[in-house]
């Protein structure tokens, strides 16, 4: 059985798309071949790595990349995870289906936090929301 190739796309490939890729690899690795990228690259967010590790998922080996740096471009689905990526999503060759499922931006939410623990609460919430979404894939696409 061929795996469904999914690209998770967000603005900076630092947090949401990285978490989605890691969750898909961990939860659905037998069904999904996941990739992530950003419109630009902002670097892997250490708080995203931390909250994923708390959930038992090691994404410390992942890195921030743009679409041009991906090893392949023949995806079955491109899932945009933020409004900016949805609005600026490039056209992909072939019969790629574009799906939008937006999530809040944890770094933006955490900017006003008074402590690291308060900031991490935002990352944990979005991590868990992405987990719930990935559990439904690829069946809901």
UniProtKB/TrEMBL annotation:
Kindly give the SUPFAM superfamilies that the UniProt entry links to this protein.
Answer: Phosphotyrosine protein phosphatases I
Which SMART domains does this entry report, sorted A to Z? LMWPc
Q: Which InterPro entries match?
A: Ptyr_pPase, Ptyr_pPase_sf
Q: Indicate yes or no for the key word Signal.
A: no
Q: Which residues form a coiled coil?
A: none
Report keywords, A-Z.
Answer: Arsenical resistance
Q: Tell me the ranges covered by the Phosphotyrosine protein phosphatase I domain, including all copies.
A: 4-140
Q: Name one GO biological process term.
A: response to arsenic-containing substance
Instruction: Report what the protein is called.
Output: Arsenate reductase
Q: Which organism is it from?
A: Desulfoplanes formicivorans
Q: What is the lineage of its organism?
A: Bacteria, Pseudomonadati, Thermodesulfobacteriota, Desulfovibrionia, Desulfovibrionales
